[in-house]
Amino acid sequence: MKIVKRISYLILIICLLSVQASLPEDAFGQKDKTLNEQLKEFEELKAELRANESQQAVTKEEIGAAREEIAQLSQEQEDLEKEIETLNEEISQLEKDIISKNDEMKNIISYYQLSSTGEDAYLEYLFTATDFTDFIYRMSIAEQLSDYNDTLIDEYTDLIKENENKKEEASAKMVELEAKTKELESRLIKLNSKLETTMEGAMSIEQEIEVMDRLIKNLKEEYNMYKCDYNLTYDECIIEALGDQLYDTKFYRPLQSGRVSSVWGPRSFTLGGRPYSDFHRAVDFSTSRGSKVYAAANGQVKLVINAKASYDKNHKNVCGGNKIYIIHIVDGKKYTTAYYHLKDIKVKEGDLVTHNTVIATVGGTSYEYWDNCSTGAHLHFQVAPGHYGDEFKTYSGFNAASINPKKVINYPSRGRPFSGR
Ligand SMILES: [Zn+2]
Questions:
Q1: How far is the CA of 104 from the centre of ligand 1 (A)?
Q2: In this structure, are 148 and 275 located in the same domain?
Q3: What secondary structure letter does DSSP report for 232?
Q4: Ligand 1 centroid vs 348 CA: distance in angstroms?
Q5: CB under 8 Å, gap of 24 or more: what pairs does 346-349 form?
Q6: What pairs with residue 34 in β-bridges?
Q7: Within a domain: residue 120?
Q8: What is the 254 CA–ligand 1 centroid distance (Å)?
Q9: Does some domain include residue 381?
Q10: How far is the CA of 267 from the centre of ligand 1 (A)?
Q11: pLDDT tens string for the chain (421 positions)?
Q12: What is the span of the domain harbouring residue 310?
């Protein structure tokens, strides 16, 4: 099949050469390189990646330490919140005590005034006391009541003082809590920017170099297959060879139906019981496991990461699982689209696809044991202007170049379903 395809490409090239298809001038970046230049660049990049390896190990350690610190801070924060809660309970109890003391005092004062002061008491004696003994008895009770009243006033004052102290303590704790929260937040921001490159699609240096070796091997194969001079630029070679098969007028949704579960931008989520946040440089479509994944536009499969195969070989999980990268020219501009968390891969590197080609099926569940960065069936769809292997040569380069997919493809807002492509 591939041979037939290739022969037809050769025929196509001859046709194209005779027709001299006119290509939009801005279709290709200014970074067009000859294969020889690219080979040299690849070697430099590989050396750079290897040099980065030790630095990445340090970053990973830092992330581990920061995570621990954040866990500790969260615990401290929780403890402080509990303390404040207890203080507030104590304060409200004190307020209740103060109110009841206050009532008690009012009663005593009114009785004391009625029964023991000046004329009132004398008149009372005249009209109610049966004898002098009774009057003396009443006066002594009034004196006792007066003492009791003094004690009550002292207790009342103490309660108010205690309440004020507790309130001060609580507001100090609150300030402390706010400072801790701020500290936690700034730590999280720093940690997140580090995590950003490690989440969902991150490749290890090992894998990155493996991918690069494959890319350059494919590139050489393409040059040889299309009989391109190594001193031609990649664009000159591939466009001559593939012509309008890379072209499309627009992007299509990569699924027949689904629901937008995560959009471009900062987000928080839980993975393996741990809270994470990152900057999502893509859109996620949730749909049932095994659903067909289509190429978003005509193009060529540039890269296939078979995470299942590598897991079966070395038992290492790959964040993002099985992945496919496709290069396109849409509306005269170069793009790369990426598809992550795939169950089955249906295409090979170098395959030409149309926007109706089924390239894979949806994974992302626990059945896809080789993918440790997904919590449910969904497709992660990412897009960057430029071609993988040309404008950018690494995963992080692709990631950095990525744009909000909403700019090139139509889909509803987060949480909303869609049907049709
Ligand atoms: Zn995603």
A1: 66
A2: no
A3: S
A4: 23
A5: 347/301, 347/304, 348/301, 348/304, 349/214, 349/218, 349/301, 349/302, 349/303, 349/304
A6: 233
A7: yes
A8: 14
A9: yes
A10: 10
A11: 444 444 444 443 333 333 333 333 333 333 467 888 888 888 888 888 777 776 667 766 776 776 677 677 778 778 878 888 888 888 888 778 778 777 776 776 666 555 555 555 555 554 555 666 666 666 666 666 667 767 777 877 787 788 788 778 877 877 887 887 787 777 767 766 665 555 566 677 778 888 888 888 888 888 888 888 888 887 778 777 776 777 889 999 999 999 999 999 887 777 666 667 678 899 999 999 999 999 999 999 999 999 888 888 888 777 889 999 999 999 889 999 999 999 999 999 989 999 999 999 999 988 898 887 777 899 999 999 999 988 888 888 899 899 999 999 999 999 999 999 9
A12: 242-419
* DSSP structural state of residue 295: -
Q: For residues 43 and 36, give the distance between their C-alpha atoms in angstroms, rounded to a whole number.
A: 11
One-character DSSP codes across 21-67: ----GGGS-TT--BHHHHHHHHHHHHHHHHHHHHHHHHHHHHHHHHH
- Contacts of 60 by beta carbon, 8 Å cutoff, 6+ apart: 198
d(Cα 7, Cα 1) in Å, to the nearest integer? 10
Terminal alpha carbon distance of the chain: 28
Distance 200 CA to ligand 1 centre (A): 7
Tell whether 85 is covered by a domain: yes
What is the Å distance from ligand 1's center to 119 Cα?
Answer: 89
Residue type, 193: S
Tokens representing 61? 């350690």
| The total number of structural domains that make up the chain | 2
Helix (H, G, I), strand (E, B) or coil at 137: helix
- Domain assignment present for residue 105? The answer is yes
Task: Report the distance separating Cα 282 and Cα 280, nearest Å.
Answer: 6
> How many angstroms separate the CA atoms of 345 and 362, rounded?
9
The pTM is what?
Answer: 0.62
Question: Do 393 and 255 belong together in one domain?
Answer: yes
Integer Cα distance of 235 and 25 in angstroms: 12
**Which of these, 354, 325, 181, 169, lies nearest to 251 by C-alpha position?**
354
